[in-house]
């Protein structure tokens, strides 16, 4: 096993040289990162195909292209982001000036998940580099081919003292979490997120937790059903539903339920064929334990589409379940697979109450042509982020912070928010010596009287 304390010492020493704080160094590192991804594109596509059976189209869209956009945006905006920001100074501080400086934390730990094993390892790294930090990346052991390519890519292009990849299973993560990192960024499940936060608390290490939860999609009776069905099908069954912001379940207005289900079935067949298990590009379930867990949900409610599976190939058809209630097993935890429960409603107030009585979801999707209804739902329901009349698309914008709330996570990233996540905002007041306001000193005559007049 690698001596993790010596690795941290090496990175801390490199950080203390102040090289990572130089703007040119950061931009050059980001250019290097993008160039190395381009050089490794074929290896990345092959590795993710082996790990998850993703098509080249899906891999490029969700794992590679999104990183190019994020890097380009960061390189363009970084010179503005790193500048000290002058802010207002109150009258009580007359003679002084106030500034906010962006300070990197130092040595950061990035723990990545298996569902988007390349993108979710490097997207936080973009923010860490932009902010001037060093980084240790721990990829998932459930996607070994991608982890191996990631390690090769990083080791060939970056010094271990700056960025490195540590492969290994759960015990490797546990060992890393015992070290005194300056910041920890974790993407994964809620139970493991709690373990990470507990470990971080021992050193009072700040954390970002990108978790998950049961994200609802609501189809109101005035929605464009054809468009809604296509976007729900795409958002749910991309990556075989193994997406933290995938619609976890549907609430469909009873007046349009059958019409919508017809459109949804058509959309699924159009995207994945009449026999999805035979579709060479339909993503597989990551491992047997997760496959068996998902299999258990197929007995819930009434299966109106799909339900077939292939354990040897670890594939489960896109499956629609009706006659579902909150008491069913499929509604107890995040599904994270190609199983979509459908509940119906008549009154939106009942929908709101149902969602509010469960942990805050990471994402929220509402389909309606009414801006007033959409605004009402946004106002009344707590969630990390979401879309009106779409699914998932919000996370691809560098101008929108992506993160959870409550049980679905702590902190946010993407675009400038990635830079801010990996930066401490250091407040500095620069005081004049030309004059001195005596009110603050204990020996001033009538000090309290003057102070009350001044600070009334």
Automatic annotation (TrEMBL):
* Top-level division of the source organism's lineage: Bacteria
Please provide the Gene Ontology terms (biological process) for this protein.
aldehyde metabolic process
Q: Matching InterPro entries, A to Z? A: Ald_DH/histidinol_DH, Ald_DH_C, Ald_DH_CS_CYS, Ald_DH_CS_GLU, Ald_DH_N, Aldehyde_DH_dom, Aldehyde_DH_NAD(P)
Q: Which residues form the Aldehyde dehydrogenase domain?
A: 18-428
GO MF annotation terms: aldehyde dehydrogenase (NAD+) activity
Q: Tell me which species this is from.
A: Gracilibacillus salitolerans
**Pfam families documented for this protein:** Aldedh (PF00171)
| Name of the protein in question | Aldehyde dehydrogenase
Q: Which family does it belong to?
A: Belongs to the aldehyde dehydrogenase family.
Active site residues per record: 210, 244
Q: Does the keyword Acetylation apply?
A: no
| Keywords carried by this UniProt record | NAD, Oxidoreductase
**Which Gene Ontology cellular component terms are annotated?**
cytoplasm
């Amino acid at each position: 096993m690698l001596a993790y304390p010596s690795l941290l010492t090496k990175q801390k020493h490199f950080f203390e040289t102040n090289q990572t704080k130089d703007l040119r160094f950061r931009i050059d590192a980001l250019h290097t990162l993008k160039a190395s991804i381009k050089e490794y594109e074929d290896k990345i596509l092959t590795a993710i195909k082996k790990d998850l059976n993703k098509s080249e189209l899906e891999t490029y869209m969700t794992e590679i292209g999104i990183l190019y956009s994020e890097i380009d945006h960061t390189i363009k905006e970084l010179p503005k982001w790193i500048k000290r920001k002058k802010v207002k100074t109150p009258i009580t501080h007359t003679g002084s000036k106030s500034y906010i400086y962006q300070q990197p934390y130092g040595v950061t730990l990035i723990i990545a998940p298996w569902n988007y094993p390349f993108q979710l390892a490097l997207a936080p790294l973009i923010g860490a580099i932009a902010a001037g930090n060093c980084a240790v990346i721990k990829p998932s052991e459930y996607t070994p081919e991608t982890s191996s390519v990631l390690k090769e890519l990083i080791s060939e292009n970056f010094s271990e003292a700056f960025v490195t990849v540590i492969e290994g299973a759960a015990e490797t993560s546990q060992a890393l979490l015992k070290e005194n990192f300056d910041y920890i960024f974790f993407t994964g499940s809620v139970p493991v997120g709690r373990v990470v936060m507990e470990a971080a608390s021992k050193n009072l290490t700040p954390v970002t937790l990108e978790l998950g939860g049961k994200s609802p999609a609501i189809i109101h009776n005035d929605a464009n059903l054809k468009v809604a069905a296509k976007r729900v099908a795409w958002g749910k069954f991309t990556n075989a539903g193994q997406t933290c912001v995938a619609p976890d379940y549907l609430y469909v207005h009873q007046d349009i339920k059958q019409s919508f289900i017809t459109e949804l079935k058509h959309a699924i067949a159009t995207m994945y064929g009449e026999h999805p298990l035979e579709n060479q590009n339909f993503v597989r379930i990551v491992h047997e334990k997760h496959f068996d867990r998902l299999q258990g949900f197929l007995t819930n409610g009434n299966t109106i589409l799909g339900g077939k599976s292939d354990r040897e190939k670890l594939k489960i058809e896109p499956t629609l379940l009706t006659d579902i209630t909150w008491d069913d097993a499929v509604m107890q935890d995040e599904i994270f697979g190609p199983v979509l429960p459908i509940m119906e409603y008549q009154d939106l107030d009942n929908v709101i109450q149902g969602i509010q009585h469960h942990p805050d979801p990471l994402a929220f999707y509402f389909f309606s042509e009414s801006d007033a209804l959409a605004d009402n739902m946004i106002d009344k329901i707590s969630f990390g982020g979401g879309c009106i009349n779409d699914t998932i698309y919000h996370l691809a914008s560098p101008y929108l912070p992506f993160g959870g709330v409550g049980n679905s996570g702590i902190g946010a990233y993407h675009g400038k928010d990635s830079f801010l996540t990996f930066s401490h905002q250091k407040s500095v007041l620069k005081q004049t010596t030309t004059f001195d306001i005596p009110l603050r000193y204990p020996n001033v005559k009538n000090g309290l009287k003057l102070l009350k007049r001044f600070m009334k």
